[in-house]
Amino acid sequence: MAPLTRGRGLALLMVALAGARASAQQSASHGTSPLGRACCLAPTATWPPSRDTLPTLEREGNPAGLTTRDSGATRLLEVALHRTAGTLQRPQEARAQQEGALHAEGGRLLGGWRTAGLVRYARRHDRDVRWNNSSDAYLGTPYVWADSIGGDWLRDLVSLGATIATPSWRRMSAGVRLEYGVGQGARRNGPRPLFRRRVLDLVPGVRWQLTPRQQIGLHGRVGWESEESEIGGAGSPDDPVIFRLRGLGTFDRTQLISAERALLGRRHEGTVSHAWRSTQWATSASATARLVRDSVRDGIGRPTPGGSSRRLRGDGQFAVRRVVPRGGAQLDARVTRESARGSDPSFGAVNVIDQATSMAVRWQRWRGAAPDDATRWWQVHAGASTLSRRDVVAETAWRVAAPEAGAAVLSRLGGGGTLRGWLVGASMGRRFVTDTNWRADRPTRLTPVLVRPDFAVHATPQWHGGVRLGYEWRSAGLRTRVLAEVARTTRATDAPAFATLGSRTVMQVTYSVF
Amino acid sequence: MSCWRIARCVVPLVLAAVAGCGDGGTEVRTVPVSVRVSYPGSYAQSAAAGARIVLSSTERSSADTLVADAQGTARFGRVIPGSYTISASRSLTADEAFTLTGQRTAVALAAALPARTIQQGGDTAVALTLQGSRLGDLVIKEIYFTGSRTPTGDTYFSDQFIELYNNATDTLYLDSLYIADVFGNSGQINPTSLPTPFNTDANAVYASSIWQIAGTGRQRPLAPGRSIIIAQDGINHRTDPLGNPNSPVDLSSADFESFNQRDDNRDVDAPNVPNLTRVWFTGGFDWLWTVFGPGLIVFRAPSTGFVLDTVRVPGSPTLQPRVRIPNVWVIDAFEGLQNGGSGSYKRLTAALDAGFVFATGTYTSESFRRRTAATIGGRRVLQDRNNSGEDFERLSRPTPRTFDEVPRSNLLPWRAAARRP
């Protein structure tokens, strides 16, 4: 059993690099959505994986799964500097993004109870954000505030998380996780729009130990989100023009002195999961159904509905890991389907209809007694996604189908278990586009500004490559690691339709102690 | 219980939950809209045959027009659900008015439902009852309220003006004529902006400021087809040191200006332009109309005199009182609002003005000019259906004293279809 449950090793390395950042963002953005930002820039199963992939109920998100965590106290402290820049971007994304983040998490055994928590603070500087005056134009709702000016934003993001799980009692245990995220940001140029966003999620779960080797879990999620936005007011030299985006080109605009908008959302989620393990094998599987609803309201004195959206999503996951004395291997598979509809109060009906599916399979193998001491680690992955979007009134619709594949390798120079060593890695991937369809029979002035460029990003074949270099040492029972990563995604076509798209580069330096 | 047994119970429940949630709501589909137009209850017949019915989208720059049949109804077949202003108008000649009312006076009738939401889910039937007011021989020919930008990008609003036009066949006398702006927000220009609390009074309008053309009765003649300009400041705004080189107007030859005499001399008096008489004023340095779209009226008080009927603004005790003006005094009216969706902020009743106009923004130099209905012997007869939305067209720049052709200003031009990359 030991190889399966010891430490965090390479998995923690991956968490340290991407997971911490991703988890905090996910708490504010409902997780990675095939409709959201993650669908276009990088392969869906890119390297490195964003979280510990050990097949357990905890991996499937069940807080009661914490009970079965074999390690006692865990800890992680991380400081990360991150920069993303390039023209391969969705039209409402920042042209460049710089972020400094401090992340800490840990877990303790208190009597028979297990606890875990995390805290993260990030300060982000987004440069040249256009057509987006909200926290994130790609969160899901099509009802987004914007102005045509654009500019640089400063954001402060705080995430807190706490989990507690009971001891096993009659082969059962329960757990609950609380996730809270708060963020605020403001543009640095007039008319200085700003937003405040709060997200609160309560995740209760239960676990049954069916047999010594297998367990089953049920957990749910109830979440609340609210976001208030403001624009104009004192200090604005001009009357700002507000665009209320309402779909793929559908919008209205007006000039005003100041305005406020509120977004309120609720989400409900249910997951059933199963885990099985033996000396050499471990599996986990889960099925999740999620419903997210949100609505937008403009003004205070005479509030007017700005639109409501409803997103329904189903996820299926499966993972199997095999460990042998000199290494191990793991296969992960995931299927996601999401449908979203936006009801426009102007029409009293659904005007925006989105459908997305994604499938991904990842196989990873490592050489070494345990993943955290592996001297070599390989991964290949493949996946496919489809995304279709439609705006009824604008008679605009597009669809993209894109399979993708990639591979990654990570090597420890100096061998596993040594006190000091270098980490060297590389990854590459290719995103193909096998089918596209574009139709805009009633385009508006925003169709060429927002809709067509977004379609172009999705419809662009891409290359993805990255390199990584790190150094690690251990002292006083602590492992310290400094890691630098550069990854680049590049347009892989010379077609004139995609001429404005170039590449996007991610650079990150992380200092971790765990 | 084995895991398979549990799975067989739970997984179908999850799938059923997903399937049962459905997709929520139906897609946008066109709907038919029937509009029935009636004459006022005191008229000899109900069905307003021949009424002109306009269905204009408050979100898209589109409008459909039909003429009511003998039953006073018209049916719009394929309407995209959304927010619309539905208006109807009917101009009665003196003979037609005599048949219907016994009064041989030409009258303009109008009705409107501003910002009416049409939703799918069946046949939408709308009923409008026309309201009448006398046809104004003196009409507002043009209003320029949006202001302009200076070369440095600053805002400039001192070049606002209103132009009054003699639409009759006889000379009119402007002595003692009043011009006023109407109290109320133009739309939700601030988060807490509310429609005017006076909108419950269908028989009057409430003026913020009132100015008067001085005269004893026949000192200010205005020949048919001629107009006068009333400026906020009667200067050449392009060349005056206090002006704006980018201003679209030279108002140094205006007929009147609204000089607001103050102890601090913040408003400069243009010596060559006669001043209006300030009757009631609640503004600041100038008689500034909101650049988001004002409501303006031209009226005459009874010959017995004008006693100011001041009224406190409900809910705003600190504001200066406004002056109640009965509808029957109003000769002509104009309504501008913030945007197409601001119909609920209308300050004027449908009897005075069934519609409204809106600019594409503030400080755009856009102007609103009344359309020409006919040209008779070289004299233009301007359209007056008591509906600003129909009667006025938006121009990219003002045309004081002229009817020069200038580009119309469009809000949302639809582009040609684009297909496949």
Q: Can you summarize the main beta sheet of chain B? A: 8 strands, mixed
How helix-rich are the residues of chain B, as a percent range? under 10%
Number of helices of chain A: 3
Quantity of strands of chain A, as a count: 22
Q: State the separation between the terminal residues of chain A, measured CA to CA.
A: 22 Å
Content-based structural category of chain B: mainly beta
Radius of gyration of chain A: 23 Å
Mean pLDDT of chain A comes to 85
What's the β-strand tally of chain B?
29
The run of helices and strands of chain A is HHEEEEEEEEEEEEEEEEEEEHEEE
First-last Cα distance of chain B: 57 Å
Low-confidence stretches of chain A: 1-31, 38-51
Kindly give the count of domains of chain B: 2
Radius of gyration of chain B: 25 Å
Overall form of chain A: globular
Specify the number of helices of chain B: 3
Largest beta-sheet details of chain A: 18 strands, antiparallel, barrel
What does this structure look like?
- The complex is a heterodimer of chains A (514) and B (421).
- With 514 residues, chain A is mainly beta.
- Helices cover 7% and strands 61% of the residues of chain A.
- Chain A is built from three helices and 22 strands.
- Chain A has an 18-stranded antiparallel barrel.
- In chain A, strand 15 and strand 16 form a beta hairpin.
- The N terminus of chain A is likely disordered.
- By secondary structure, chain B is mainly beta.
- Chain B has two domains: 133 residues, Immunoglobulin-like, CATH 2.60.40.10; 286 residues, no CATH class.
- Helix content of chain B is 7%, strand content 35%.
- In chain B, the strands form seven sheets. In chain B, strands 14, 15, 19, 20, 21, 22, 23 and 24 form an eight-stranded mixed β-sheet that branches.
- In chain B, strand 26 and strand 27 form a beta hairpin.
- The longest helix of chain B has 19 residues.
- Chain B starts with a helix and ends with a strand.
- The C terminus of chain B is likely disordered.
- Chains A and B meet through strand 8, strand 10, strand 11, strand 12 and strand 13 of A and helix 1 and strand 29 of B.
- Strand 19 of chain A pairs antiparallel with strand 29 of chain B, so a sheet runs across the interface.
